Amino acid sequence: MDMRPDRSVSLETLPRKQHAIVAAIEWARLAGPEARRLRELGFDEGVDVEVLHRATLGQGPIACRIGRMTVALRRAVAGAIQVSPMPAAAE
Amino acid sequence: MNAAPLVALVGNPNAGKSALFNALTGARQKVGNYPGVTVERKVGRLMLDDGRPVELVDLPGAYSLEPSSPDERVTRDVVTGTQDGERLPDALVVVVDAANLDNHLRFTLQLIALGLPVVVALNMVDLAERDGLKLDPKVLERELGVRVIPTVAVRKRGLDELKAALSGIVINGPMRLRKSDGSVQDDIVTLQRRARQIATAATVSETTVRRWTHMLDAVALHPVAGPILLLAIMFLMFQAVFSWAQPFMDAIDAGFTALQAFLTAELAPSLLRSLLVDGVIAGVGAVIVFLPQILILFLFILVLEASGYMVRAAFLMDRVMASVGLSGRAFIPLLSSFACAIPGIMATRTIDDEKDRLTTILIAPLMTCSARLPVYTLIIGAFIPNTQVLPFVGLQGLVMLGLYVMGIVGAFVAALVLRRTVTKGVSSGFMMEMPKYQWPQWRDVGIGLWSRAQIFLKRAGGIILTSTIILWVLLSFPKPPEQPAGAPKISAVDYSIAGRIANGIAPVFAPIGFNRDIVLALIPAMAAREVAVAAIGTVYAIDDPDSNQGGKAMVENLRGRWSLPTALAFLMWFVFAPQCISTIAVTRRETNGWKWPAFMVGYLFAAAYIMAGITYWLAVAAGL
User: Fold this and answer.
1) What is the rounded CA–CA span in Å between residue B132 and residue B113?
2) What is the pLDDT of residues B522-581, one digit of tens each?
């Protein structure tokens, strides 16, 4: 799988409806329980992800699809998740 | 004879566990009552095909055996046999959502590793198929090494097969966990990858179809349309509580009034008649009248929860809640608290962050619970003229709305202050699975409503009846001596024990405009808030035995004895009023000690006193 680091963006800035693959998660930026819950909800390198909704303009949470699940998380957490947009879906 | 084998239903949140539990046990279930119970337990009975009865317990949903909320701790402790008051289950039914295998199988793998007999219910297979997912249960059985039964709990499909599989694994004999300490230390990432492999292997085919959930979310989570929809739903909910319930309330009220009239006519004047008519019927009747409103409120909350919308509401509210240091998760318990603070406080168990949860518990009583409705309705009806302020907007409704808003504003201010002082800490996160939308199952909603109604009626029959009778006794004795004709009549209430106590405390409340009757009502209102209405009813029934005791006479009495500033101060008192005893008890239980309930009572009492005082002084200054 092609995952050049220069192509990765954070989940926070990933455009809506753009399919992507989780490239890296900066666990150190997350509080302990937060990191564990993130893992429990299925966040892991190599899993496909997509931003579905962003809450009310400003700093509201985002809703994303991870695997077959929809998960809501805050932007600060999304910022710690690096993703590689999938070229196929971008075209 | 040995007790029936215990089978625990366990699985991820949103796997359809409760629906399966309801389908398996029907109405034969018991929900642990609030006060005095340490664990909320949902148990039901189930007959296996071979005639053996089995006790089925529904455990709170969890993501893993490493708990991050009190709810998940109960689940871990039960399946590892370390929960007080629960024996180690003889078997587990692991419920998984067929459409979400890669996630749910991870917890399943952890549970299987415990070593208890397991059968997996591959639930909601119909929804998975609708989403274009075809699975092979045989592959799952091979990979997991346990029986896997496809089920559709809400359509009762697969239940017989599930029961047959259970008969096969429930053996009579002591159970033992695989590891003596019961801990499963497997790495989450490894388990997750294994779960994904199994899910991929079991997937026969997968086609993408348009999903209802995504289409609905496009509106429900829309930055502009979403909040408008939420507001509309909230408006509809409160509208329904006040208008739909009215005919039922009138009917119940008419019933109790007729019963009073009947007893008054049939029985000779006696102490027993006074107890029945003035004490029991006046008191309990005044409370049961509110059953329709409470049920409608719970109906909305149950439907919003069952449909999956509640989590969307939490998503939309996260931003607002974050501004006072809470998370969107707190929205759900707070909304439930509009029905009653007790289920609200219990719902905080899903909040992982300890400080976040504590803050939510402390402000939950500020949400105007349905028990305060009787008080608001009575006082507003008696003192606020029903003039039209705007088309379709009456002054009475506006005051009622104002009281609700006052509670919400109070709660937000309290949260802001608490998060900067006693519950200081890093701002908690917000991370939540958003389940698929589902059509609520009326049967499940019905069961939920039925258990709420039972709890409410038990309260009315227990704590409310008892405190009403005690108050009646304290108000009725001793009787004032007969006065010679022409001499001023001695008030029966002032002469009674309760009257003397109230007259003693009254000076404390005199600065904020509270008279003796209010002080009398406040004491039993600690038992349950709606008793305040019953208590005022009883006071006037005893003080003025000749008048009829219908609602009309009570309103006349109030108007004659209370000034408008007093009435307004009384309303404001109840916005902040210290909680009922059940709320204090549930807070003690949920926070493991007396420290926080004591703090809660203290700060709310102070807030109630100050706010009622300000209201009174302003109203007097304004010449009302």
Assistant:
1) 31
2) 877 776 677 777 777 777 777 766 555 555 667 777 888 889 999 999 999 999 986 777
In this complex, the residue of B223, B316, B429 whose CB is nearest that of residue A77 is B429
Task: Give the global pTM.
Answer: 0.79
User: Would you give the DSSP letter of residue B37?
Assistant: -
Check which CATH number belongs to the domain holding B12 and give it.
Answer: 3.40.50.300
Please state, as a whole number, how many other Cβ atoms lie within 10 Å of the Cβ of residue B560: 9
Task: Please report, as a single letter, which amino acid is at residue B158.
Answer: G
Rounded Cα gap, residues B322 and B330, in angstroms: 10
* Band of residue B467 on the pLDDT scale cut at 50, 70, 90: confident
- According to DSSP, the β-strands at B118-123 and B147-151 are parallel
| Per-residue model confidence (pLDDT) at position B504 | 87
Q: How many domains does chain B have?
A: 1
Higher-pLDDT residue of B56, B269: B56
Q: Closest Cα of chain A to B213: distance in Å? A: 10
Helix (H, G, I), strand (E, B) or coil at B286: helix
Determine the 3-state secondary structure of B388 from DSSP: strand
Of the candidate ranges B5-14, B24-33, B257-266, B408-417, the one whose mean pLDDT is the lowest: B24-33
Chain B residue with Cα closest to A46? B193
Residues whose CB is less than 8 angstroms from the CB of residue B447 and which lie 6 or more positions away in sequence, other chains included: B22, B27, B29
User: Sheet holding A48-54: strands in order across?
Assistant: A9-10, A81-85, A20-25, A48-54, A62-66, A69-73, B431-434
CATH of the domain at A69: 2.30.30.90
Pick B429's closest partner by Cβ from A34, A60, A69: A34
| B chain contacts of residue A52, beta-carbon cutoff 8 Å | 214, 217, 221
Yes or no, beta carbons of A69 and B217 under 8 Å apart: no
Task: For strands B133-135 and B203-206, give the pairing.
Answer: antiparallel
Is A52 a domain residue?
Answer: yes
B154, B16 contact by CB (below 8 A): yes
CA dist B528 and A69 (Å) reads 43
- The residues of B whose Cβ lies within 8 A of any Cβ of A are 63-64, 66, 68, 99-103, 106, 188-189, 192-193, 196, 213-214, 217-218, 221-223, 226-227, 311, 314-316, 318-319, 322, 328, 352-353, 426, 429-435
- Which among A44, A67, A76 has CB closest to B189? A44
Choose from A22, A37, A52 for mutation: most chain B CBs within 10 A.
A37
For residue B434, the distance in angstroms to the closest alpha carbon of chain A comes to: 5
- Domains held by chain A: number: 1
Write out pLDDT tens, residues B25-77: 876 666 553 233 334 678 888 888 888 889 998 888 888 888 877 778 888 88
In 3D, which of B501, B325, B507 has the Cα closest to residue B413?
B325
Residue B532 forms part of a structural domain: no
pLDDT in the model for residue B72: 82
Domain of B41 in residue numbering reads as 6-206
ipTM of the complex: 0.88
Q: Does A53 touch chain B (CB under 8 A)?
A: yes
CA distance B362 to B348: 11
